[in-house]
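User: Good morning. I'm curious how adenosine-5'-diphosphate would be positioned relative to this chain. Could you predict the structure with it bound?
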Amino acid sequence: MNDQCTGIACSNISFRYGKTQVLHDVSFGIGRGVTGLLGANGAGKTTLLSILSTLKQPLGGDVAIAGHDASTSRGREDARLSLGYLPQRYELMGFSTLEDNVAYSAWAHGVPEQQVPQAVCDALAAVDLLDRRRVRARRLSGGQRQRLAIACAVAHRPKVILLDEPTAGVDPMQRANIRDLAVRLGRRSSVLLSTHIIDDVSRGADRLLIMVDGRINHDGQVAELADGSGEDRTRAIEQLFLKVST
Ligand code: ADP
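Assistant: Good morning! Here's the predicted structure, ligand included:
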């Protein structure tokens, strides 16, 4: 199967809020692995992810998720079953246990009832929270909540995973855990990780898209920017980001 069937293909996406155009001719295709979508606050990342998740319809352009054309209602329905979306603000059911949170999400994403318990175990194990499965979600730390939210988003083993600023507001240790988790998810899925934190892409992404004022100003492999350590890559991405932002 080619990348277009397993990942995201979008071409010439545009979007406006009222009279303000916030996305201009956005085109890219991504396959398996982690693609970092780096941009300053207000660049248009969340708007783009809402369109890719099918929550918003673009003003113009085409989107296909795992080969499903998001311009038709049937295509959007199929796309939703093939994607896992972690929005910036995700409401967990605080009084429910971790396993109930993940079970509900798996079921809502179409996992057959008899397969839900195994899907819950797999998803909680993937985010290192299996031993806390009977704890209520409200008792978790910020980073643990974020990992639980990711487990909810991926319990149905989607081909495409959209993570909107998953490391925002968590401590450096948890941030590294979430980056490692994205890398593991990228082995089986196409992961698009939006962030304004350069370390997230230098240490966690194979590919880098830089968004500036609603346009993709750079699209390339992270390894081509600098050999060697995370620090070298961070510096190289920082310089590139400044260059393409002006
Ligand atoms: P990012 O995720 O990169 O911070 P957003 O997609 O949230 O960017 O925002 C892109 C632009 O659209 C910003 O200028 C923001 O103020 C504007 N915007 C976002 N949501 C709305 C909305 N609901 N109504 C009007 N403008 C919005």
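The chain has a mean pLDDT of 93. The first strand starts at residue 8 and ends at 17.
Let me know if you'd like a different ligand tried.
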